[in-house]
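**User:** Hello, beginner here. Are you able to go through the protein record under this note? It all follows right here:
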Amino acid sequence: MVFYKLQFDIYFTLFFLLFLTQQPLSHMQIGYYLVSVLLYLSAALLIECLAKPFYWKITLLVIILFSAGLALPYLYFFAPFPLLSLILEKEVQRLRDTLLYLLLANSCVFFLPNFTERLAYVFLTVILALFYHLLGRGYHLMKAKEEANEALKRHMEELSQKVEQQKAQFLRETQLAKLEERNHLSHQIHDQLGHALTGGLIQLEAAQAILYKDPEKASELLGNAIVINKNGIDSIRKTLQATKPAQESIAISQMKAKLEEFENDYQIRTVFHYEGDLRRVTQAMWYVCYHNLNEALTNVLKYSKATRVNIQLTVLNKIVRFKIQDNGLGTAHFEKHLGIIGMEERTSKLGGNLVIDTRSGFGIVTLLPTEETTS
């Protein structure tokens, strides 16, 4: 804002010098005015650099102008500049304050020689007041926006730090949960396996001790050892099955992760729905669906120019239906390429069919028979 104010002062100085050449003044008087104007501009720049309150600077400039104006009255044309610059300091621009400063600036009009110059002075103060009013309003508005942006930036940085802290805490808690689960599993296996091995070993040692003395009893002890070991193995197997995540849970998580990565990389929205008994979907079916999904997403990027992709997995009585539909460009003439051929081959290996619909967007439906149907 100071830059614009000084720039306006310089422009007015040039206009003022042109005005002096039109007045009935001697060359010496014009020289005095020129030196006085240069001294005033130098003083204004110097005072602007001082670490003093704004009102103190204005008062000093006004005193300099009034003192010089007693000898050179046309210098009073510079008086509105420091007086009306008080408008710039008001964050809230009130019309009452502007009129007050305008009245104060026009107090110098009576020191000018004739009516025409006084009229020009009044016109100058009005134009200058309007300019400073608009400049101050724009400056404070811009300053408020910058402060708001800075506050928003700080808030975003705080949120980012909180997210990073929560992420780190989540990773620590996840790691701790894994360690606790691993510790619990090791204790459970140790207790079950240790009990089975210890009991079986006792039975084997007892059978060895009486093997030749009492073969029937030794045979009975060997049978007990076998039963104890079988029970221990079954118990361990059940424990491992209980801790292992379900196949459908892993497959769904992989698909969600793939779709989330696709959204983040290409800004194309994806919607994934699934229904039915997912336990009936075999690992081979999940393999076909996942790789068909990959190929379909590649087609979306290459051909359809879509902004949204819907994925629907439905487990019915006799078939598994996996549909991928986008909202991109459809076509009446579709030619199969290697990617589509690969999808058909994968699907046909499980006895399924691949249906392609390109009338409205690009749609691919994978139909796979369930094990009950194939058997």
Summary: The mean pLDDT is 80. The chain has two domains: 1-145, 247-369. Residues 1-145 form one domain.
